[in-house]
Amino acid sequence: MVRRSRGIRSKTRQMLKRKPRERGMSPITRALQEFEKGEKVSIVVDPSVHKGMPHRRFQGKTGDIEDRRGDAYVVKVKVGNAMKSVIVRPEHLRKV
Hints:
There is one protein chain. The protein has 1 helix and 5 strands, in the order αβββββ. By secondary structure, it is mainly beta.
């Protein structure tokens, strides 16, 4: 038997699929948006942008901007009883 691969994008067939009218390049304003420290954001993965893409377990989660790291932001997200820090580029963030 061959062992199944368990890559970072495994089990994401539905999640990383865009609706037919949303296909193609994302708007540039989404990549240029800026956030302030302490602002509430929600993580919405944009499958057309691979760079700075968070893990699928954080899809749909809401957190607070903790810090800026280069072009990306550090978002504090609660997963279960633990607080996680996720490094995400602005293409995958929306203001709440």
